[in-house]
Design goal:
mainly alpha, 5 helices
């Protein structure tokens, strides 16, 4: 396995792991409240509906990254598609902190991870540009 393929696979799997870690707080409000330090959290059906929709999309994106990992060079465009997703999640994190919903100290680690993931994805894409995928016949 060449370096750029390995770099892509590492990028995919870091995304897969981070997505998997974020699923439980989306599916179980008590887990999310504990993770983000939100006291006396009693979400209504609107919140649960929105989070369940988000969780299904998160799971789908996790599976998409697993699919991309099966043919890292051929499917590297998935990382490019992931960048707007990360930026949207970063915006959501900034909203949570600026609105007072989540303390900035609780959101900072997530913002750092999102920044690192963005840099990692861009670097993995840049490294893979040198390699042209081979097509199987």
């Amino acid at each position: 396995m060449n370096r750029s393929t390995l770099f892509l696979r590492i990028a995919y799997w870091i995304g897969i792991i981070l997505d998997a870690v974020l699923l439980p707080p989306m599916l179980f409000p008590a887990v999310g409240a504990a993770m983000f330090g939100i006291a006396d959290f009693h979400p209504g059906p609107e919140y649960r509906y929105a989070m369940y929709v988000g969780a299904s999309l998160m799971l789908g994106w996790t599976l998409l990254l697993i699919w991309a990992d099966r043919k890292p060079l051929e499917r590297r465009g998935v990382l490019l598609l992931t960048l707007p997703v990360i930026l949207g999640m970063t915006g959501s994190s900034l909203f949570a902190a600026s609105s007072g919903l989540v303390a900035p100290g609780r959101i900072l680690p997530i913002l750092l991870l999102q920044g690192i993931l963005t840099v990692l994805y861009i670097a993995a894409l840049a490294a893979s540009v040198q390699n042209k995928p081979t097509r199987s016949k």
